[in-house]
Amino acid sequence: MSDVLELVDVSVVRDGHALVDEVSWSVAEGERWVVLGPNGAGKTTLLNIASSYLFPTTGTVQILGEKLGGVDVFELRPRIGMAGIAMAEKMPRRQTVLETVMTAAYGMTAHWREDYDRSDEERARALLDRLGMAEYTDRRFGTLSEGERKRTLIARALMTDPELLLLDEPAAGLDLGGREDLVRRLGRLARDPMAPSMIMVTHHVEEIAPGFTHVLMIRQGKVVAAGPVDTELTSRNLSHCFGLPLVVERNGDRWTAHGLPLQ
Ligand SMILES: Nc1ncnc2c1ncn2[C@@H]1O[C@H](COP(=O)(O)OP(=O)(O)OP(=O)(O)O)[C@@H](O)[C@H]1O
């Protein structure tokens, strides 16, 4: 299996402070990774490196077989799909859901003068359908609920048929029903052998969809644990990662975690 992402001794230093501290991590083709860690741990910073938008202070990064620094990032970026809050903020609110997804095919956020192919429209509609958004294609992006917006952005991230899909807290802000709906859809995507390699950042083990294979836990920019979910997602590692005693339990193909009561 070839590496989709390879970080070797990567640090990102700002104002003398390491946001990411000597991280080595590799993601092989077909793997689905969850990145877990408390607020400020460096998760988004890692995703920004994986998406080629952030160049590390030290260390080497290979994305989809290309070395960061030696590759034209504008050729690399269409091969990476990204959905998260940062992307949501860039989307024009008055644009329709269909346009929001289709503009990804041209590496743009807003519809301008490009003529869309019929095949682009068909693909955008099929992806929206897969994410449960078929009824919303003509709605303006700005009028969508949080859950609808998140599902639209995942469809958008898949529009270029990326080899790597990066999801930054896709379930943040969703109610219980919205979260469960999204987890089911992500589970279907994670188990699809044709789907891209995936990396999903989250704060909650409840948001890990069945089909996710690996976990990276980080705390204060450093790797606490990395490897298969089955062996690494333990109470010990999670407690270390979040800095308090936690118990993680597996229930079928889902996970829950809770803190121990105060003495
Ligand atoms: N440009 C910057 N300059 C200085 N500090 C920064 C910069 N960008 C991020 N940070 C800090 O780096 C740390 C890691 O940020 P990051 O957004 O990667 O964390 P995170 O794990 O994604 O957090 P959260 O779960 O809260 O989203 C935070 O303490 C943040 O304040």
Which secondary structure elements does this structure contain, and how are they paired or packed?
Layout: E1 3-14, E2 17-28, E3 32-36, H1 43-50, E4 58-63, E5 66-67, H2 73-76, E6 80-83, H3 85-90, H4 97-102, H5 118-130, H6 146-158, E7 164-168, H7 176-191, E8 197-202, E9 214-219, E10 222-228, H8 229-232, H9 235-242, E11 246-251, E12 254-259
Parallel strand pairs: 3-8, 3-9, 6-7, 7-8
Antiparallel strand pairs: 1-2, 1-4, 4-5, 9-10, 11-12
Helix pairs in contact: 5-6
The protein binds adenosine-5'-triphosphate.
Adenosine-5'-triphosphate is lined by residues 14-15, 19, 37, 39-45.
Structure description:
This protein has a single domain, classed as Rossmann fold, CATH 3.40.50. 40% of the residues are buried. The chain has helices at 43-50, 73-76, 85-90, 97-102, 118-130, 146-158, 176-191, 229-232, 235-242, and strands spanning 3-14, 17-28, 32-36, 58-63, 66-67, 80-83, 164-168, 197-202, 214-219, 222-228, 246-251, 254-259. β9 (214-219) and β10 form a beta hairpin. It is built from 9 helices and 12 strands. 30% of the residues lie in helices and 29% in strands. It is globular, with a radius of gyration of 18 Å. A 6-stranded mixed β-sheet has the order 6-7-8-3-9-10, with helices on both faces. A 4-stranded antiparallel β-sheet has the order 2-1-4-5, covered by helices on one side. The termini are far apart. It is α/β, with parallel strands linked by helices and 263 residues long. The model has no long low-confidence stretch (mean pLDDT 92). The structure holds adenosine-5'-triphosphate. Adenosine-5'-triphosphate binds at residues 14-15, 19, 37, 39-45. The site of adenosine-5'-triphosphate has 11 residues, from α1.
